[in-house]
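Appendix B, record 7
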Amino acid sequence: MANPRPVVLLTGLGRREGIAAGIAERLAADGWDIAFAYSSEYDERANGGAEDLGEIDSRLRELGAEVFGIDADLAEVEVAASSFDIAETLGPVSALVLSHAESVSAGILTSTVETFDRHYAVNTRASWLLIREFAARFRGEPGTGRIVAITSDAITNEVPYGASKGALDRIVFAAAREFATLGITSNAINPGPVDTGWMTSDVREWVLGRTPAGRGGMPSDTASLVAFLLSPDGQWINGQLLKSDGGFSAPG
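Structure tokens (predicted):
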């Protein structure tokens, strides 16, 4: 009898051009079943309309994955537990990939209390609750559990976003230490600027000029690193913030 496919809970999969979609396709091709959380409310508010997820679902199934989509407002405290309840219908969850984000441009003077609190509720508190839920439920063999979070160092005119991502990093590092006895690794990836539809031509030109690799980042670049970290070969990497940006952040 064939071994069952491992199950990953992936957050933030709402757009075909997004990083989470690239991660989902790579993991499906690598043999994972995928429960994915998305927010139709956020896609409507931030992107001018929620995408039809049917195409994403069909593509993942073509790659051999069993799939379950979860429409979840991660600002709601109870959503972490309910998301795992749904994900576990596919089987025990052995990896958690956090690729969701509340992202509204606002600086120190222009941020509102409501905007600031919403960013922390989604980007930081929800991530903590999901990480906590994962560890509480994990029953896999030591060394097989994985947590990967997508982070960012954007700060200027992105204060609520950047601050909440900085707090997320610290939770990810804490998990690497606190979950040592469970055999769960925990890492963060900073993919740098990835054009998922938000870049203007000026921004794209500026990014290309600063990137030694000579091209912009693509979701598949981040997906390749996530796939490695979730694989047995990635077991020795733990408690790290990995920059996968073609050299964009290199000094000089």
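Remarks on this record: The chain has a mean pLDDT of 93. The CA atoms of residues 22 and 220 lie 5 Å apart.
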